[in-house]
């Protein structure tokens, strides 16, 4: 990729769509289109984000169709808008390269040779994107893999806060993997049918935390700047080069000021002078929408960040984000007169389940059909047997088999390695978290593997991410703090009160680590010591009780080795005391590969949870938690808890009531 800003006239791609629909048809699309004005134009901007290789509406983990996902479905909405609108552009906001077994098949099995086209890029090429940016998951398979993938894209990919090698003194002087921005020279059809050129500046941003999350791939090879700092330096250059309107592709979420704004800086980015529209993502949420209500500077109903139009269209192609601009040319340039924001879903949830709203675009489907079939063969390959079901329906409220098997595999892998090292005398623990536990991904997002043959697709279902295994050396006191952070997933419960929600909605399940090798209880009547972002909420709080190793209270000064992954060991999740200097072993293998090797070695695994953690008594308090409706098949596994299923809520979750 070029190391300098580029202009779209240098990129070979389809011409700008103009005027295929009659004026009356366009007027039905939006009333602005009906204005027969030689100075006004209606421009529609479309966004996808967080596709995670979901090209087809298919769940490779469950090996069945999936009506809530798939760029092939989103493509139908894109083409509908293009047929109706006189002026429309399409953008992608990153995280397209990793996230399901098709991505892993390409990365680990088929590979990416020079000249190969990645299937998600092939699908994007069919749709004719105008530009895109990088997300944090583009780096999961390494820089060479990413660069070979980007080489196949027919649209420019930009990122302003990513540098090749060390940072220069000024952002504008950074060496680049991809250009910081692009200017798209397009021609707009105006309300009276005449045409006038416009220059659209597109600048991209990625979460700076990639330097922590993918340190193994990026350390010494790349560097990042804070998103807002890069924008303040480079947006004026875009304007100076003649951009009429500036669009920010921000692979970064939306949070209030001071609440993790380094990672989720889209609200603060919108306030940068010169930016006109913000496309956002990363959080897998929907904006406009209720997820962002009552936040200063955010209009969650109209879709405004710092007063500017912005959109976040879910994930996996679940929605298409649409920003409508009513533009006026004042003789010297274009300005936005009005704007509107909407989300176009590909499915809806009804009393009978999920109903698709559009059919797949056959051109997109055909572009990846060969890779789809190869992925199916890949994920169906058996590697062993499981003597008991593996499921994650109760992973947030009880010791769980889907987490247990990961901890068993990590300990198995490290046991012999550590035996021949200077750490041979230290106790070995293992930490793992549930990845598929509903939440923002919906009531079907759970692991559910029956007893019997287990295949690669099942292993990918147990461990979603291509993390690599790490070992850290910490004290018994730091083990407790690790668990205190994990215990922040629970709301504080008032003894004796009925039907209190147990799970804190803003705490991601992948930060709920269970540590095997110790036993402990969690007292949810106490306040959480740490916030979901890892800040100290109450320094005197203590939820972890009866923490013991080998049947005795843990010694705060005793040293332990803990098996974990590169994300956690390098500071991911902001767990207290977990820093790079605590890492004592960097495995060459991915956690998922370790899990496969463990199953092959054991041939038949027994994933039954050992119950090493529990809730402390809470005065008979009644709490509620939500899980997938499939949990009803595994009620017999709730031996640790007094829980009863109730009704299904409006989102399709089965609601349990439980006595502590």
Automatic annotation (TrEMBL):
Record's protein name: Bifunctional 2',3'-cyclic-nucleotide 2'-phosphodiesterase/3'-nucleotidase
